[in-house]
Request: fold
Amino acid sequence: MARRGKDSVLTEITNKNCPVDKKSDLRRVVYVYSDDLIAVCDQLPKVQCRARMVHSLISAYDLSRCMRCVSPRPAREDEVTLFHSSDYVDCLKRLSAIEDDEKYDEEAEEFGLSYDCPAYPGVFEHACVLAGATMTAATCLMSDLCDVAVNWCGGWHHAKRHEASGFCYFNDIVLGILKLRQKYERVLYVDLDLHHGDGVEDAFCATNKVMTVSFHKYSPGFFPGTGRLTDTGMGTGRYYSVNVPLKDGITDAQFVSVFTRVMELARVSYAPGVLVCQCGADGLTGDPMEAFNLTPSAHSQCLQYLLSWNIPLLLVGGGGYNFANTARCWTVLTSVVTGQQLRSEIPEHEAFTEYGPDFELELQAGNKINRNTNEYIEGILQQVKENLSHVSCG
Ligand SMILES: CC1(C)CN(C2CCCC2)C(=O)N1c1ccccc1/C=C/C(=O)NO
Ligand SMILES: [Zn+2]
Reply:
């Protein structure tokens, strides 16, 4: 039974055993879930009903039985201000209580709560629930309750200390990493989302206690506009921020190749004690972002590589605006960490009709022109290799 100290956030839900024999050395997986968490995530303006689709596909494949489901608690304000400024938290809380969201508030501008990232009634409570879920996952990992902890309602990587950004209000990832730092000397963060993980990189750009590695589309005018190859952190943190800027059209094979080569350099030079992986799915083919040609197979191969390190792993979600494809991706990743084979046919379940016309788990790769030449990729690897030659924690 998990420790139930005052800080314990574990409200364990007993679950049936996974349909595997006891001898297998499968990983112990905690799945952070509650009806409230799904309900809150489903109210987020740009991903409405996505969380429910993800959870119901995972359940339809019977994967919940292979994990220990843990119900999270919302983050307290004193926990959120471990990263975010009190001014920002106070402003979000004030705006969250205003029912008529027509009323524009000039103070909001300072905190990023403007037109393209608006506060909405209840946003403060929602952001606390989402942050608390990732902190719960981190706590489970630190309590040695599991080898892998999963929160598909997390991954809000753009939120800054002093402002909301990119529809991210509290940075659950930074708060989860701060929690993990209470136990682990070195934390390695990797970001698979189409967008640069700027909020997490900013939080840790001046320290060598957290290495951040982001693989993202980098193109003039593309949000957030940061994440250049030459951005490597500052001061004590110099070389501990790694950026892999990619162009449109990258394929599964090319992405997995650059991912494994960069991450191997990071593992050898940094020797982390724990891994945090943001699995944003907006780089998948069929996403409205229409940028990369990736399928869930790429993310699955990246995750299998990370699992081979055999260190504790925290998985969170992120972007992903084709909800059926995002559910496919995160269900595949959940099957990888639980060591379960999934059949291709989407099982009958409440959202079955969303998976047409093929009703299959796998996606066909996109065929956008690939702007990433091998020379371009080799150039990135040379620069990353040179940068990481300055890092030696092993
Ligand atoms: C509003 C949404 C979030 C959705 N969206 C697309 C998808 C579908 C049609 C528009 C965006 O470009 N968005 C954004 C708008 C402004 C700033 C950031 C983002 C996305 C951030 C992100 O995904 N980070 O990982
Ligand atoms: Zn994104």
About this structure: The chain has one domain: 26-71+133-388. The chain has twelve helices and nine strands. Residues 26-71+133-388 form a domain with the Arginase; Chain A fold (CATH 3.40.800.20). The longest strand covers residues 210-217.
